[in-house]
Amino acid sequence: MSAASAGSPQAVPDTLAQRMQPCIACHGKEGRATQEGFFPRIAGKPAGYLYNQLDNFRSGRRAYPTMTYFVEQMSDAYLHEIADHFAALDLPYAPPQTVGAAADELARGEALVRQGDAAHGVPACAQCHGATMTGVLPAIPGLLGLPRGYLVEQFGAWRTGQRKALAPDCMARVATMLTPTDITAVATWLSSQPAAVGPAPAASLARPLPLTCGSVPP
Question: What is the pTM of this model?
Fold first, then answer.
């Protein structure tokens, strides 16, 4: 190799995948997430949901300084481009993070996910997030493959008003209906479930949403 070629700058392709490299520092390779804690998988989530979250960080409805710093000067068009990029990724899921959880906690979590708690007005998670819990197009996320700690933290943020969505904020309402024990049970069950390779969001719900959600188009 000549001195001239050794000193030549390396060409970096100007692709969206290349520009998204800072995202993988927290969200894992290609947005698959890691098993280490509080950063969610973003690969394969519905584009409408991903755009809503980027906009929430930009507008202050969600508070996380690093995310706000990245998106505060981005245009709507660019946020949609980012959301479309990660939504199009069809990638393997890691094995479930939670193993060996108590049977009674898993049973309570599954009951809340699949049937809800009618006595306390709590709808089933599956009524909004889909029967397979892989989300629904265009803007409802899947809940499989998320760390247990992240799920608990997000419920807590909704309960305390630290996380918000477009009004009416249906998740904030649900979070306040659940007890801390129920929240832990739901997070434990969800984080213990295996996910098939690239489970796709459902195209539509079988019935109307049980609550009106500002983040979900009519």
Answer: 0.88
The alpha carbon dihedral of 165, 170, 176, 182 has a sign of negative
Query: H or E element: which one contains 53?
Result: helix 47-59
Q: How many CB atoms lie within 10 A of CB 146?
A: 21
Tokens representing residue 192 in the block: 């213990």
Q: What is the pLDDT of residues 145-175, one digit of tens each?
A: 888 999 999 999 999 999 999 999 999 999 9
Query: Considering only CA atoms, which of 37, 86, 87, 52 is closest in space to residue 164?
Result: 52
* Domain ranges (residues) in the chain: 14-191
Q: What is the DSSP letter of 75?
A: -
User: Residue 96: what residue type?
Assistant: P
Closest CA to 53 of 29, 23, 21, 28: 23
Indicate the CATH number for domain 14-191. 1.10.760.10
Rounded to whole angstroms, the Cα distance separating 34 from 20 reads 17
